[in-house]
């Protein structure tokens, strides 16, 4: 069984901890505050490693890549974002992804946005294709899951890029990749250590 990655929002987002950077060891249980008790729970693909990060006053992003790939050369990437915006809805963020693809691609094809609840939190999911990036020259496919927490929006994206394709063609992704992505995103969840009745966390 792969280790579970838990990300906790801290008061200073720039200090955002990532369990993967500590060999996936569970973080010591500490007294939690309202701002630190929410955790994004996910099981990264086996062998993937953190290969990039960025932080600002209101957001943190981590990027993970499969073995042999890096931020400089990749065909698959996992992006994890925490956006400290008290008003942003999951659908709002998904719409931003759609708008970015429309601006940056020769042609983009978003799926319908699916909205619902997961572990007591509002969630939106969607996929969008990019026939050919205007800058990269590569085709792309993104699957997005956004979760609205009490103090932030948590966004997980699986991204593929490769040979460009035509508007009327399916993205030429590896066989089985979409099924893997779907199973992965289904298991991404948000929990709250201080509210196990509404948002229970998995047992270590």
Structure description:
The protein has 204 residues and is mainly beta. It has one domain (5-192): Protein Transport Mog1p, Chain A, CATH 3.40.1000.10. 12% of the residues lie in helices and 36% in strands. It is built from two helices and eleven strands. It has helices at 90-104, 177-186; strands at 5-8, 38-42, 49-55, 59-65, 76-83, 108-110, 114-118, 121-130, 139-148, 153-162, 189-192. The strands form two sheets. Strands 3, 4, 5, 6, 7, 8, 9 and 10 form an eight-stranded antiparallel sheet that branches. Strands 1-2-11 form a three-stranded antiparallel sheet. The protein is globular, with a radius of gyration of 17 Å. The two termini are 12 Å apart.
Features:
single chain; 204 residues; mainly beta; Protein Transport Mog1p, Chain A; 8-stranded antiparallel beta sheet; 2 helices; 11 strands; 36% strand; globular; signal; TonB C-terminal domain-containing protein
User: How many structural domains are formed by the residues?
Assistant: 1
> What percent strand?
35-45%
What share of the residues lie within helices? 10-25%
Helices, by number, come to 2
State the separation between the terminal residues, measured CA to CA: 12 Å
User: Main β-sheet, in a few words?
Assistant: 8 strands, antiparallel
The secondary-structure element order is EEEEEHEEEEEHE
CATH-assigned homologous superfamily: Mog1/PsbP, alpha/beta/alpha sandwich
User: If you compute it from the alpha carbons, what radius of gyration comes out, rounded to the nearest whole angstrom?
Assistant: 17 Å
Integer average pLDDT: 85
Number of separate strands: 11
Structural class, from helix and strand content?
Answer: mainly beta
Provide the CATH top-level class. Answer: Alpha Beta
């Amino acid at each position: 069984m792969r280790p579970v990655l838990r990300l906790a929002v801290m008061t200073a987002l720039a200090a955002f901890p990532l369990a993967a950077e500590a060999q996936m060891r569970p973080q010591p249980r500490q007294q939690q505050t309202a701002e630190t008790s929410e955790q994004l729970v996910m099981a990264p693909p086996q062998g993937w490693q953190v290969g990039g990060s960025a932080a600002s006053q209101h957001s943190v992003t981590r990027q993970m890549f499969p073995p042999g790939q890096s931020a400089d050369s990749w065909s698959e990437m996992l992006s994890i974002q925490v956006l400290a915006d008290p008003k942003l809805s999951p659908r709002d963020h998904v719409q931003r992804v759609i708008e970015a693809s429309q601006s940056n691609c020769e042609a983009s094809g978003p799926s319908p946005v699916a909205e619902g609840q997961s572990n007591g939190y509002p969630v939106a999911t969607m996929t969008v294709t990019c026939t050919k990036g205007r800058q990269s020259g590569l085709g792309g496919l993104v699957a997005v899951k956004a979760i609205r927490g009490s103090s932030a929006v948590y966004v997980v994206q699986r991204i593929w890029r490769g040979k460009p394709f035509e508007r009327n063609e399916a993205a030429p992704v590896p066989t089985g990749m979409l099924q893997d992505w779907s199973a992965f995103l289904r298991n991404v969840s948000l929990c709250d250590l201080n509210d196990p009745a509404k948002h229970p966390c998995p047992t270590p």
